[in-house]
Amino acid sequence: MNKIMEIMDNMDYGPAPEDSSIARDWLAKHQDGFGHFIDGAFTKPANLFEVMNPATGKVIARVSQGAASDVDAAVKAARAAQGKWAALPGHDRARHLYALARHIQQHARLLAVLETLDNGKPIRESRDIDIPLVIRHFYHHAGWAEIMTDEFPGARPHGVCGQVIPWNFPLLMLAWKVAPALAAGNTVVLKPAEYTPLTALALAEIAREAGLPKGVLNIVTGDGDTGAAIVGHDGIDKVAFTGSTEVGRIIRRQIAGSGKALTLELGGKSPFIVFADADLDAAVEGVVDSIWFNQGQVCCAGSRILVAESVAARFTELLARRMETLIVGDPLEKSTDIGAIVHPVQLDRIRSLVEQGRAEGAQIHQGSAPAGCFYPPTFVTEVEPASILASAEIFGPVVTLTPFRTPEDAVALANNTRYGLAGSVWSENINLALDVAAKIRAGVIWINSANLFDAGAGFGGYRESGFGREGGREGMAAYLRHPAPRAKKPEAALPAPVATPAEQMAAGTIDRTAKLYVGGKQARPDSGYSYAVPGTKEAVGLAGLGNRKDIRNAVEAAHKAAGWGAQTGHNRAQVLYYLAENLSARAAEFTERLRSFGQGKSAAQTEVETAIRRIFWYAAQADKFDGAVHQTKSAHVTLAMHEPLGVMGIACPVAYPLLGFVSLVLPAIAMGNRVVAVPSQTHPLAATDLYQVIDTSDVPGGVINIVTGERDPLAKTLAEHDDVDALWYFGTDAGAAMVEAASAGNLKQTWCEDGAARDWAGAEGQGRSFLTRATQVKNIWVPYGE
Q: How many Cβ atoms from other residues are within 10 Å of residue 439's Cβ?
């Protein structure tokens, strides 16, 4: 029988190897090793380490290990180039990015083959997915450079950006970070992953070929120590990191208090929800595209299949049948579905986790894989939600399968994770799909699809999947800043409140201690202590001395008020208008309270009137701070929805005890958050006097909670609390560093500023920037026009 007849008989794919000769010739040109790319030129190779092809185990290159001196040189070059690069008209930066995109297109095949040799992913993925997206990002951000001054008026680049990228999408992650940074006028010092540095070095050659100015892009290779040197360098103004949550925590602590901007795109354990009415065959293909894409080495992979109990058996059967057809093997073969695991260390980790799951009673179902650094496609049944396989990020071609009965069960299981990067929902009922998409706590949701990406839509996570976005308007905004206010005299550290009796109370003062306000009720502080609130000469009252337990109770009450975020913006606005109306009715009373602290009559009246106007302004914004609809992939639109962060902690400045409180609490609750606020430590009574105003304004209990006392210890408790989603701190530099470091536990978003820097009575005291910081963007990919 001839070969054609044999092929027709068994229907197997014939050999279709990718020609890798040009890529290997390029590697041969660098057989003496690669140096770093600094100031437009490659340094002399030194202190080399080996880079291997994971599919063969053979060494394919040697690359320099970056030292502190190399990082210093790269940062110096980036700093020297940054001023001129930022001063270029946006059109000129756009031309450079456009040229870079064109040159990448012209070298696309070389880059695709290099990526497959270096990373082990199938050539079809490198060629058809990764490199086209790289090109798309440079084109897209050339457009942002062109129109930046129109779309982001008053914005400025951060300066020098330090960027550390992972090994799973080496060139694509570079594009995600470098393109917006350069478009915004920043310069870059980037470290590619130790396992996969080759396409970054090839891109450096392409950038030089395309005429990118010297020093604008600098690449320093090396291991984690090199990355730490970049992140911690005093000359870096913004840090961007993609990688594990554990390393993200280390970086958060490392740069706490430095003033560096930070975005983190971290791990995930994404749910893949299949309802009974879903197209099961399409959903199975979605699994292939989700968890078996790139060997499962995808942070947003749908690694937890949640399938309706009524179709679970049928879905499992279809999934097993499809898994048997997957081809695992040589990544350069065009028929290969699953390539090599990036490194033996990662392969060992996958094997170890699967064996732990097996020991816990999970049933392991696997396809086949050749010997070497390969792992078979795997799905796992009989998995408890607390199992290691259902909770840990495996980062391999392993997916769990768990049945559910109701949509509520599906949502509960989907959110039963510390991560929040992505999710996928499969149903022919679009009402059900969109309802569930809104309830999943993740930054990206795909409906009847999986792993779709585009430069026009933001990508990033909630909770321990990090913060910040890459791509879209919000991704561009992450590389821009608005000049922050600076204090002529920074806020000084405050002495601890004195809980012993005051020498004397002001004459005529009613003997009443202002209690805490928790869950819509006044509450005595757990400590049982109070402290004197100073007036012009004598104390004007007593405030409760809150402690850790009071914060715990307030956070619990805030979580119970979750329905506030589910209300329409119009309904929230009505409540806030009512709040302003009731405060206006008692304006004289609040003016006198401020005067008792020593303010002049005019200043006190101005603070109260400004507070009332500010409540009105945020009431007006409650139903107007809209999202967007992005035109992304064909047959899809992407809804960019502004969602509340959840439970926010707010530590208020000392000055403007009423206006500072209102200016921070109102934007948070207008966007649907619930707050635990620590008012001015020295004069908290201006905030506690709001209890009755809040009570009579239909604000649901638990939406606003007030805990008085020593600001920094209470802020530290809020920062460490894993059920607090964000923290705004306006105080001292030391307090800001403490808050940022303590927030690393659950990687909550923070906004820290000198409490004396902002003019709360002026334009700096309100604005859309407050609303932006009070929300996070969820991108929902919806089929459209199919």
A: 18
